[in-house]
Specification:
alpha+beta; Rossmann fold; OB fold (Dihydrolipoamide Acetyltransferase, E2P); 6 helices; 14 strands; 35% helix
Length: 240
């Protein structure tokens, strides 16, 4: 996951980097963090690259500057997640000389979780992880695999970036939550999201991100027919 951070105070920037890295370790998410001292420094990078998943911005920036920055950053990346942060204090108290209470570590973790796992009010899947319950945006799930007493979920939160998340829920429990219009049990140990499938043959299912999962012989024919009908329907709707 690629992050950019605009923070003029190096002390605050270092603490923010530490918090974000701690979040990444707890979630087992590989992170790349690039820091910028002001919006002009960020602008010069953004005009040439535009390759980040989230932007963290100091809330002490003037309102006009924040609005300008948000409009500029989202002009060519409408889905870019922007988190506005205050200066950080270790104990969550007010900063010296500031009337604003600083954002605490746990609040930052909740903001980062929202960026990673869900957006707005889209359908979500609630899962139990070793760090507690999480809500995953259902249309970012590639597949679910039963593993031991729990499951592994392959999740694509940002563009073509994919990672795997372990949860304690059973496959049957997750299947009950998932919308049957979009998800199908394709094997005794797998559930797949139908619109993530690139092709199906007797050797298995290839997903759009390149992952491959098995398909049972009992499901193979029904799944191919289901996908054929879905694609025909999409073509009809597109030509209407």
């Amino acid at each position: 996951m690629k992050l950019a951070m605009i923070e003029g105070e190096e002390t605050h920037a270092e603490l923010l980097r530490r918090y974000v890295k701690a979040w990444g370790r707890e979630r087992d998410i590989p992170l790349s963090i690039t820091s910028f001292s002001d919006k002009e420094d960020f602008r010069s990078m953004w005009e040439g690259q535009r390759d980040i998943d989230a932007l963290l911005v100091d809330t002490h920036m003037a309102d006009e500057d924040r609005k300008e920055l948000s409009g500029f950053a989202r002009k060519d990346h409408i889905d870019l997640a922007i988190i506005f942060t205050a200066g950080f204090a270790e104990n969550g108290d007010k900063e010296p000389g500031s009337s604003k209470k600083s954002v605490g570590r746990e609040k930052l973790f909740r903001c980062m979780d929202k960026v990673l796992y869900r957006e707005g009010r889209r359908d979500v899947l609630v899962v139990q992880t070793k760090t507690g319950p999480l809500e995953l945006v259902a249309d970012r799930i590639m597949f679910v695999e039963a593993q031991g007493s729990g499951c592994m979920i392959e999740f694509c939160p940002q563009r073509n970036w994919t990672f795997q998340l372990e949860c304690r829920d059973s496959l049957a429990a997750l299947e009950e939550q998932l919308d049957k219009k979009y998800f199908r049990r394709c094997h005794r140990a797998y559930i797949v999201r139908l619109d993530k499938i690139r092709r199906v043959n007797r050797s298995g299912i290839e997903l759009k991100n390149g992952s491959r999962i098995p398909v049972s012989r009992a499901i193979y024919g029904d799944l191919r027919q289901m996908l054929r009908r879905k694609r025909e329907q999409e073509q009809e709707e597109g030509g209407a």
